[in-house]
Each structure stands twice: as C-alpha cells, then as structure tokens.
C-alpha cells in the first residue's frame, strides 16, 4: 500500500518509528517531514500528506503532531479527506468501518510507539462496512 506520512517536530520521533514499522511491513512510504526535531509549522506538512491522499498519489495518510488536533484540522480541510484522530485500537477500527477514514491522525504526546503500531496495523487492515455507512460517507463527501 502507498502511504503518505508526515509530522511536525513534536511528532518527529513517532513518525520515524512508524516509517520503519511500515517499511518492514512492505508498504511504500512517502515521508513529507519533518526531518528533525527543529520547530516547524505543521499545517504545511499536514496539507501535503492530505493532498497526496486526495489526489490518489497515496492510498492512505498518517499525520502526527503533539495533540493530533492541529493535524486533524488541516487534513480535514482537503476535499476528499476523512481524517480521524485515534488514540485506541477500537476507535481506529471504527473510523475505518463506519467513516472510511483515509488519513489517520495520532497524538505523539498521548500515544506510545507500541500503541501507535497497534492502532496503525488495525487501521490499515480494516475495511469499511458499506451499507448505511457508505450512505453517510457519501454525505460527508458532498460537504465542501
């Protein structure tokens, strides 16, 4: 799977952990930064990841900042993106099953690397349920 990933300086370490994890699982990973812990602006990175997903250059995206809130706001501004801030495996599963989330948002301050790997694995392997959920996703997609 082609995965776009990005983080600000606060999510840099967790992003690097996930990049290694994803590559070990044989995913193709495009890293949009940050490339150090030096302070940077998250909106630019989050937008690039969301744009890659929206345009089809990536199948899924993952964005990380300290709280996940800023990255959620940025990613959800991009047409066709349904970004979900997940801090537990059950939430990650539900975001895929019910909302067909295509961008996973993680909070580096509250999600450990081991939990992030579990969340990511479940999120990437869970399929949308369709049915009434598909109708609702279509409604979300119509909102500009």
List keywords for this structure.
single chain, 144 residues, alpha/beta, Ribose 5-phosphate Isomerase B, Chain: A, five-stranded parallel sheet, 6 helices, 17% strand, globular
Q: Describe it for me?
A:
The protein is of the alpha/beta class and 144 residues long. It has one domain: Sugar-phosphate isomerase, RpiB/LacA/LacB (Ribose 5-phosphate Isomerase B, Chain: A, 3-Layer(aba) Sandwich), CATH 3.40.1400. Strands 2-1-3-5-4 form a 5-stranded parallel sheet, sandwiched between helices. α1 packs across α5. The radius of gyration is 14 Å and the shape is globular. It starts with a strand and ends with a helix. The model has no long low-confidence stretch (mean pLDDT 95).
Quick structural overview:
With 144 residues, the protein is α/β, with parallel strands linked by helices. It has six helices and five strands; from the N terminus they run βαβαβαβαβαα. It has a five-stranded parallel beta sheet, with helices on both faces.
Number of helices: 6
Overall strand count: 5
Strand order of the largest sheet: 2-1-3-5-4
Low-confidence stretches: none
Strand % is: 15-25%
**Roughly how many Å apart are the termini?**
28 Å
Assigned CATH architecture: 3-Layer(aba) Sandwich
Write the H/E string, N to C.
EHEHEHEHEHH
Structural class designation: alpha/beta
Q: What count of structural domains?
A: 1
CATH class: Alpha Beta
Cα radius of gyration in angstroms = 14 Å
Instruction: Quote the CATH topology.
Output: Ribose 5-phosphate Isomerase B, Chain: A
Q: Biggest β-sheet, characterized? A: 5 strands, parallel
The helix content, as a percent range, equals 40-55%
CATH superfamily: Sugar-phosphate isomerase, RpiB/LacA/LacB
